[in-house]
Amino acid sequence: MIVFRVDRRSGTAVYAQLVRQVQQAVRTGRLAPGDRLPTAREVAERAGINPNTVLRAYRDLEVAGLVEPRQGSGTFVRAGLARPAADLDGLRAELAEWFERARTAGLEPADIHALIADVGESHANA
Amino acid sequence: MRTPDEALAVEGVSHSYGLRDCSFTVRRGAVVALLGRNGAGKTTVLRAVAGLLRPYGGRVLIFGEPVERGLARIGYVGQQAALYPMLTVAQTLRLGARLNPRWDRAHAISLLGVGGLRATARVGSLSVGQRTRLALVLALGKRPDLLVLDEPLAGLDPVARTELIGALMADVADRGTTVLMSSHVVAEIEGVCDHVVVLGDGRVRLAAEIEPALDQHRVAAGPVRDLGVLDDHGVIELRRDGDEFTALVRAVAPLAGPVTWHRPTLDELLLAYLRAGVPQPIDEVTPA
User: Fold this and answer.
1) So what's the ipTM on this one?
2) Of the candidates B31, B162, B164, which has its C-beta nearest A50's C-beta?
3) Superfamily, domain B6-201
4) A6 domain-assigned
5) What are the residues facing B182 on neighbouring strands?
6) Which of A5, A21, A39, A45 should we substitute to test contact with B (largest number of B Cβ atoms within 10 Å)?
7) Residue A51: closest CA among chain B residues belongs to which residue?
8) What is the extent of the structural domain holding A103?
9) Residue B38, class by beta-carbon neighbours within 10 Å (0-12 exposed, 13-18 middle, 19+ buried)?
10) Predicted model pTM
11) Is residue A114 one of the residues assigned to a domain?
């Protein structure tokens, strides 16, 4: 089950952080169709978040079509969003290798993320 | 006007220490942050709400009744936790059971377990975090409908903070408990509180639900010569830096002219209200 990490000093609203973490987990396959999200109470207790904030994030995800509530049993990742064709494991392994190289070359995590964002942006604009 | 979903009404409360005509209401199930600079009167308001202090003027209603009649429904944790250092944790809970008609022993014990508090430990030997935890267990063991917390997180390490807020938020999820907590750390409020009350100069400067309040304000920035575009908007706080200004305004429409504007972050909104004096016309505001 997904474990939320909340950074209260990031300037990003907490519900937006929850939304982004679910989106990311679905995109990378860490959350698969049919997986249950933790209940608002579980997140409230573990992460110290207002349960209404969690519910608001789940509503946003539902409107975006990423999750669906099922009466009495919780909130689930919707089917049909996975990308089975993509070789996620292979790509992940290569990226992990690349990360290792970047660290060995002396880059800090922040440098690495900046580099990835930069390359990503120039690709998106190409 | 009284509404049945009102948990708390503070009506025109005045006291020494500069608290003047302080009024706000809290609806059932809200988690409210009470903010103000040092000496703004946060503790006085909280003590009046908890029935520990009788204000010189005004009154406090708990679920529509005078606070004296609602004491059993209130859980209060002050800055100095009112605990007896000679007692053990178990003895402290027994005292809690004797003093509170609505005491829920099983609940209190389950909360102790989460915090890793040993029943045989003496209160005097506990760390600050453990003592705050025990005070919160006492307050939650009462099964309160309204929890009043005076800077509950002060002096706690990040792990203890998350644990304590976690216990609190679980209670909100389970029972819809109404919470009023003071703080002066804006980052503690994000994602925890859904309403905010800002005190300044002994009065309430802002009492609002957080998300709509963010929607209803804008941060505007631009050259000082274009200050005129703010004329039709309520200016909460204005700061000048050379030829440039930054202002928090009550506005939703785009502002005209070469002025940029954006929806404030919670930080920007609260800091502006904390810094601001009583809202004044622009020409009376002195540059920072």
Assistant:
1) 0.80
2) B31
3) P-loop containing nucleotide triphosphate hydrolases (3.40.50.300)
4) no
5) B34
6) A45
7) B173
8) 88-124
9) exposed
10) 0.82
11) yes
